[in-house]
């Protein structure tokens, strides 16, 4: 049984969760559930990033103290993840005491390595991204990443010698090619690091809402350094369970924050004498109905609204099915509806309903010889999931759904009687049972509902092969309902 540590970013709590947050968290949940299905010992982290200027400003706008404000927003994240059936093992808050302790110890080690020095930061700052931006990086006077306006900052600051780690980072990328995932995003990072790295400002003097910088109490720790360390605080580093789960198997992040996770984070870890994570997987971005999503554009999608309209599993399915994990895609309600009607209702729902109807009506013995196992390749699905290729893995499961439907038609099951019918039903129920196991990471509720109707015990990956069918079938209506367009 392998240990498997997987994380999502910890999200800013200046506002409630949006569809992008739901996407990352759900994709990570699918991987966490998959690894549990394999029998791994999983530790799955998500949480909230609560300090910094952006949150401080949001609190001011609401007329609340920062702590009061974050305490009012955090439950919305916790509740959202419950609604989404997210199986995180920990919910990290950067306002937790353990985190404060870990950050201070982490900085002490970097300080003792001689990698922190005092200076003055003069440049630009993007508050929504909590990012320092140099004059050269500015794009028509705006943030090069999000296009919003930036603030001029000139203040005393402590710096981390990021520049010193250039070669060690390049060595890391070379020795561990999986570290920068997916591969097609790696070159961009490597080239930027090759160009050279500026030292990084790691404290703020004009911001009050943050972890105290112990070495100079007029400063607070820069929110990104604070946030990244959460992956260690969760393990109660440097004491706790760290040895078991560190280095993390994978940090799942959006491509917007890949730089922080693939350059700044490993350099900080090297300085503190801690091993870097094994992989940072940067996924793509959703646009919404063809446009960039943003509060200012007024098109931020509330994932809870979507779930109320269409249910949890259809949205989880859409996330995995609509865009290859890693690439960009477009979120649109009409495409979601098309998938619900075409794939969930017509393919999966129909297969289960038709098969169970046949099985319930049949008085004879459900047994036969495996026919529908042809093309069932669990090792291939395992390999795809091992590569975080959720897109092709779910496609492979769907191929099972489609070929099972074809099987009913080819056999003209409705015309059969006796042993021949028993054989077809046997093949269908075994196929559906295996589909329900394979679907459990993606659509946990649906998988469970299928399992209940088949009347079988909860099963693991090793049961994904044809054997004797030992269920007690009990049909319980349609799995999904058509949505009117
Ligand atoms: O960056 N499409 O938090 P954040 C897909 N607190 N994913 C999206 C998305 C979109 N349009 N928009 C956002 C932070 N995301 C920091 C992280 S970690 C130590 C600190 C997802 O609230 C994606 O995962 O801005 C992105 O990386 C994350 O939300 C940013 O969330």
Describe the structure using short key phrases.
Isoleucyl-tRNA Synthetase, Domain 1, 6-stranded parallel β-sheet, 15% strand, binds ligand ME8
Describe this structure in words.
- 46% of the residues lie in helices and 15% in strands.
- It has 485 residues and is α/β, with parallel strands linked by helices.
- It is built from 17 helices and 15 strands.
- It starts with a strand and ends in a 31-residue tail after the last helix.
- Strand 11 (250-254), helix 10 (258-272) and strand 12 (280-283) form a beta-alpha-beta unit.
- The strands form 4 sheets. Strands 3-2-1-11-12-7 form a 6-stranded parallel β-sheet, with helices on both faces. Strands 5-4-6-8 form a 4-stranded antiparallel β-sheet. A 3-stranded mixed β-sheet has the order 14-13-15.
- It folds into 2 domains: 3-284, HUPs (Rossmann fold), CATH 3.40.50; 332-463, Isoleucyl-tRNA Synthetase, Domain 1.
- The structure holds ligand ME8.
- Ligand ME8 is lined by residues 9-12, 20-21, 23-24, 49, 227-228, 230, 253-254, 256-257, 285-286, 293.
- Residues 9-12, 20-21, 23-24, 49, 227-228, 230, 253-254, 256-257, 285-286, 293 line the site of ligand ME8.
């Amino acid at each position: 049984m392998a240990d498997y540590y997987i994380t999502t970013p910890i999200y800013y709590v200046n506002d409630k969760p949006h569809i992008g947050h739901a996407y990352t968290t759900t994709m990570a949940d699918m991987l966490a559930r998959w690894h549990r299905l394999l029998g791994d010992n999983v530790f799955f982290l998500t949480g909230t990033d609560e300090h910094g200027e952006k949150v401080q400003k949001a609190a001011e706008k609401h007329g609340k103290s920062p702590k009061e404000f974050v305490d009012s927003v955090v439950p919305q994240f916790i509740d959202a993840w419950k609604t989404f059936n997210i199986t995180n093992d920990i919910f990290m808050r950067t306002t937790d005491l353990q985190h404060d302790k870990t950050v201070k110890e982490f900085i002490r080690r970097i300080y003792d390595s001689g990698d922190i020095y005092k200076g003055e930061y003069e440049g630009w700052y993007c508050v929504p991204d909590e990012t320092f931006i140099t004059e050269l990086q500015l794009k028509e006077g705006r943030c090069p990443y999000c296009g919003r306006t930036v603030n001029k900052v000139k203040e005393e600051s402590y710096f981390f010698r990021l520049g010193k780690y250039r070669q060690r980072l390049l060595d890391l990328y070379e020795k561990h090619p999986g570290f920068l995932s997916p591969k097609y995003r790696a070159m961009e990072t490597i080239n930027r690091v090759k160009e050279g790295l500026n030292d990084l400002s790691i404290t703020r003097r004009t911001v009050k809402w943050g972890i105290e910088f112990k070495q100079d109490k007029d400063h607070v720790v820069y929110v990104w350094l604070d946030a990244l360390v959460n992956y260690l605080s969760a393990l109660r580093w440097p004491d706790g369970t760290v040895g078991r789960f560190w280095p993390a198997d994978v940090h799942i992040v959006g491509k917007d924050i890949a730089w922080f996770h693939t350059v700044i984070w490993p350099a900080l870890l090297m300085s503190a004498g801690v091993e870097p994570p094994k992989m940072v997987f940067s996924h793509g971005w959703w646009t919404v109905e063809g446009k960039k999503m943003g509060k200012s554009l007024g098109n931020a999608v509330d994932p809870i609204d979507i779930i109320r309209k269409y249910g949890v599993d259809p949205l989880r399915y859409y996330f995995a099915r609509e865009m290859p994990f890693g690439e960009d895609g477009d979120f649109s309600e009409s495409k979601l509806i098309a998938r619900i009607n075409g794939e969930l209702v017509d393919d999966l729902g129909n297969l289960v309903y038709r098969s169970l109807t046949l099985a319930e009506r049949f008085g004879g013995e459900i047994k036969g010889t495996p026919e529908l196992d042809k093309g069932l390749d669990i090792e291939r699905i395992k390999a795809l999931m091992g590569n975080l290729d959720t897109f092709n893995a779910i496609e492979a499961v769907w191929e099972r759904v489609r070929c099972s439907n074809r099987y009913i038609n080819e056999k003209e099951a409705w015309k059969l009687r006796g042993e021949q019918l028993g054989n077809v039903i046997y093949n269908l129920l075994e196929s559906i049972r295996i589909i329900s196991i394979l679907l459990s990471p993606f659509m946990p509720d649906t998988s469970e509902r299928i399992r209940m109707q088949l009347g079988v015990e909860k099963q693991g990956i090793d049961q994904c092969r044809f054997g004797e069918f030992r269920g007690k079938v009990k049909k319980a209506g349609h799995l999904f309902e058509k949505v009117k367009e």
